Amino acid sequence: MNEEKILIVRCGEVALKGMNKPYFERMLAERIHKRLKAAGYGKASVKRHEGLIFVRFDREWETMQLAGEISKVFGVASISPAVESESKMEAIGTEAVKFMERLCEERCVRTFKVEAKRADKQFPIKSPDIARQIGGYVLKGLKVLKVDVHNPDVRLFVDVRHDKSYIYSDKISGFGGLPLGTNGKGLVLLSGGIDSPVAAWMMAKRGMMIEAIHFHSYPYTSPRAQEKVEDLAKIVASYCGSFKMHVINILPIQEQIVKNCPEAETTIHVRRFMMRIAEKIAERNSAMMLITGENLGQVASQTAEALVVTDNCVKMPVMRPLIAMDKIDIIAKAQEIGTFETSIEPYEDCCTVFLPKHPTTKPQLDKIEISDSKLDIDTLVENAIAEEEIINIRA
Ligand code: ATP
Ligand code: MG
Q1: Fewest beta carbons within 10 Å, which of 81, 176, 227, 349?
Q2: 318 lines ligand 1 (CB under 6 A)
Q3: Torsion, Cα of 339, 341, 346, 350 (10° steps)
Q4: Looking at residue 62, what DSSP letter applies?
Q5: Measured from the CB, is residue 27 less than 6 Å from ligand 1?
């Protein structure tokens, strides 16, 4: 009898990591355990076994709630609620009948197909025969069911392993990617828009820990605009764990730019200051890359020329995971991860303060640097950082 419920977690790309596979699997198991603990399921057991992760938990707990938590852990390819049996045909057959019986109570099932896999090659029966024999048990136990090998209502998977075998039917998709913490830390420039939360999420999905920086122009931008960014940051944190958000008032810098530089260059100078400040804060907080939601050609400050000039003022690599995506796909991703509704709340961003009427779309570095020489860049950067506020964003 199964005293506990089981979820089988498949590791996706982690499984391809060659020599580093145990490390990635261990990280993934740790992340799953951490996430379950935070959701109040700390007593669930999370164990790696032969390339899979087995989560065992109290039979009173709601399976789909645990599966939902696990599906948000980066590195998880898919999850299946499963039952365990002795690796003997009769035992597997008995469990398969019980499994199908339960399924028939939950949903309308008329046809099924058994698909068997034999991880233990010593097992004396080959996979097609296992499938056929288990199908026989089910047909005998549940007379209303029929086999349909082409379009069955239920695919019943039987995974025969050396010590135990597993029976399951549903596969709940995860996001794939790599476990958090396997790829350094990045500082995301987080605005209140649609793009930057998606950019942060995409880098976190590749295993990168996230920290954020947000710029405002208070009192031109409102406290509510900042609260909206905090709301977005919280949604991002629900995937990548709690993180720090550095909040900087960029207004004094904007005022100097407006006073000293040609109007058409305003945006590009503001963006270069954002990069400079972000780089300093990243260095001081052990982040190795900057992340932005920039996207080629989306707005005047994101033409190829503008991006080159923006990059030129920092040494740190700038990751732009959305660079070649279409807006419609970015929006679909934002909807999928749950940031879209918050992103479209209508609050102003510091970039819209002092917006030039005709921004230059093809800035030239030499001209921009002439304007730079009119500004005390180092002092402006240090003064802005000296006033930083740090907000702890809780997952
Ligand atoms: P988003 O939807 O992310 O706001 P956007 O299309 O509105 O993007 P911009 O406003 O030009 O584009 O900003 C480009 C990128 O610069 C953003 O994705 C973000 O990474 C960064 N950025 C813009 N405004 C801010 C801000 N106020 N604080 C921090 N980063 C910002
Ligand atoms: Mg924006």
Answers
A1: 227
A2: no
A3: 0
A4: -
A5: no
Q: Which ligand neighbours the alpha carbon of 300 most closely?
A: 1
CA distance 72 to 70: 5
Q: What is the pLDDT along the chain (395 residues), one digit of tens a residue?
A: 446 999 999 998 876 777 788 889 999 999 999 999 999 999 999 999 988 999 999 999 999 999 999 999 999 999 999 999 999 999 999 999 999 999 999 999 999 999 999 988 899 999 999 999 999 999 999 999 999 999 999 999 999 999 899 999 999 999 999 999 999 999 999 999 999 999 999 999 999 999 999 999 999 999 999 999 999 999 999 999 999 999 999 999 999 999 999 999 999 999 999 999 999 999 999 999 999 999 998 888 899 999 999 999 999 999 999 999 999 999 999 999 999 999 999 888 887 888 888 888 999 999 999 999 999 999 999 999 999 999 999 98
- Round to whole Å and give the CA distance between 185 and 116: 42
Counting ligand 1 atoms within 8 A of each CB, the residue from 191, 333, 355 with the most, and so the one to mutate, is 191
Burial 315-353 (b: 16+ CB within 10 A, else e): ebebbbbbbebeeeebbebbeebebbebbeeeeebbbeb
Give the residue whose CA is nearest to atom 4 of ligand 1. Answer: 193
Going by C-alpha positions, the residue among 221, 178, 213 that lies closest to residue 196 is: 213
Residue of 188, 195, 226, 329 with the most ligand 1 atoms within 8 Å of its CB, for mutation = 195
**Model-level pTM?**
0.93
Closest CA to 271 of 247, 244, 294, 298: 294
Q: Please report the atom of ligand 1 found closest to the CA of residue 271.
A: 16
Cα radius of gyration rounded to whole Å, the chain: 27
What number does the ligand 1 atom closest to the CA of 343 have? 2
Nearest CA to ligand 1 atom 11: 301
Cα gap 27→14, rounded to integer Å:
10
DSSP state at residue 263? G
CA of 379 to the centre of ligand 1 (A): 24
Residue 44 · residue 36 · CB < 8 Å: yes
